[in-house]
Amino acid sequence: MEIRLARAGGACLIATLAVVSSTAWAAQGLEPQGPLTLAQALDAALSANPELAASRYELTAAQARVVQANKKLNPEISIELENFAGGGPYQGVDSLETTLAFSQVVELGGKRDLRRSIAEIDSEAVSMELRARQLDLLADVTRKYIDVVAAQEKVGFATEHTSLAEKTQQAIAARVKSGRSPVAEESRAQIDLTRAQIEQRQADIALETARSALALSWGRIDAQFSRATADLFKFEPIDSFESLSTKIERTPDILRFASEARMRDAELRLARVQTRPNVAFSVGVRRFEESSDAALVAGFSMPLAIYDRNQGAITEARARRAQVDANREASKARTLGTLFALYREAYAAKDRAIALRDRAIPQAREALSQTRAGYERGRFSFLELQTAQQDLLAVSEAAIEAAADYHRLLAEIERLTSEPLTTQNLEAPLP
After folding, report:
1. Phi/psi of residue 79, each to 5°?
2. 17: how many CB neighbours lie within 10 A of its CB?
3. What are the distances in angstroms from CA 118 to CA 232, 259, 345?
4. Which of 45, 106, 273, 304 has the most other CB atoms within 10 Å of its CB?
5. DSSP states of 58-90 as a string?
6. pLDDT digits (tens, 9 = 90+) for 309-318
7. Which domains does the chain possess?
8. How far is residue 62 from each of residues 13, 121, 274, measured CA to CA in Å?
9. Between the CA atoms of 396, 397, 399 and 403, what dihedral angle is there, to the nearest 10 degrees?
């Protein structure tokens, strides 16, 4: 059951965030086939995950908002007709005055620059959100990959259990035939074999379900890869909690607060400069129908900031800015608490897996061997033999789950820190 865990794929967590991988199979519209490493699974998900592809359109939209925010206000053209269709000398259009004017609003206080700055910071925040979604995807793919590896291991042990039950049933059938064991033992052995066969089918179904869930990460239901290559029981050293906690400051989840703070600062500046009114200039030509003469007209207008000086918007902007700092500290505290819990659980899972692998499983195998030998000599009952077999299976499954839990917890910690945890590169060549 030897398989190697390509945790170097986990090390791709940061390196593959900014760009989408362009492997040959992705360029050809293919998907991973043959033995699958974690690195290949992560690469496939980054290249072809449907939800991630949809998220990239939001970044394109944010970049378009930057372009729009940098545009100047359009000029206006107007035409005004006066002194017509009235009474006396103003009947008809004899006294008509026609004014064609061109006007332009001039924004004061750098409002356009501030709008562009806000749009640029918003685009940066969207990019940060996309990176966070990439991290979520990579962590999810890692968990699903581990599920496949664990399911493969369980299938192996289920197959071993079925084979063991078959041999036991055949041996007991021979003993019953020779009159050394009662017929009831053969029936119990057959029931045990049937149960083992059912559990093996369930393990096969669980494996196919896990494979399909992993393949969905790159938009497919039917997995084309042959098997996931990993060693669940290879445990690499992990950085100290103190070292991991310092990495939280560089994660997208925390960095986005820095982007949001810059945006709130820009919004506050914009709210303040909104108190400076814009001015509008106009120039045009007026034609007098009565004399067929023409003259230039010019105008200037500016609102008087007497009642509305944008006080409410400024206060709101200040509150929003203070809220960012409060949210950042709250998020950091929650993340540190979660990281600490995951860190301790990972070490507990590691200790549990090592104890089960190095002590419990060998002891269970030895107990089964001794019980089988004793049963052959009539010292133990079939029930005791059956119990020894079940103990070995239960301990083996518990070891697999403990090792899988350890790697799942590492994937969660990697998601929180945005960096790989192991101090050694675990990428291994495929067999």
Report:
1. -130, 135
2. 18
3. 47, 10, 42
4. 45
5. HHHHHHHHHHHHTPPPPPEEEEEEES-S-SGGG
6. 888 888 988 8
7. 8-417 (1.20.1600.10)
8. 24, 10, 24
9. 140
* Number of residues that make up the chain: 431
The pTM of this model reads 0.74
Interatomic CA distance for residues 112 and 67, integer angstroms:
11
The 10s digit of each residue's pLDDT in 41-90 is: 988 888 888 888 888 888 888 889 889 888 888 899 999 888 877 777 77
Question: Is residue 47 within 8 Å of residue 21, measured between CB atoms?
Answer: yes
Q: What is the CB neighbour count within 10 angstroms for residue 226?
A: 12
**Concatenated DSSP letters of 241-305:** HHHHHHHGGGSHHHHHHHHHHHHHHHHHHHHHHTTS--EEEEEEEEEETTTTEEEEEEEEE----
339 near 416, Cβ under 8 Å? Answer: yes
SS3 354: helix
Q: Name beta bridge partners: 288.
A: 97, 293
Work out the burial of residue 387: count CB atoms within 10 Å of its CB; fewer than 13 is exposed, 13-18 middle, 19 or more buried. middle
AA identity, residue 338: T
Going from the C-alpha of 107 to that of each of 84, 112, 263, 284, the distances in angstroms are 36, 7, 21, 21
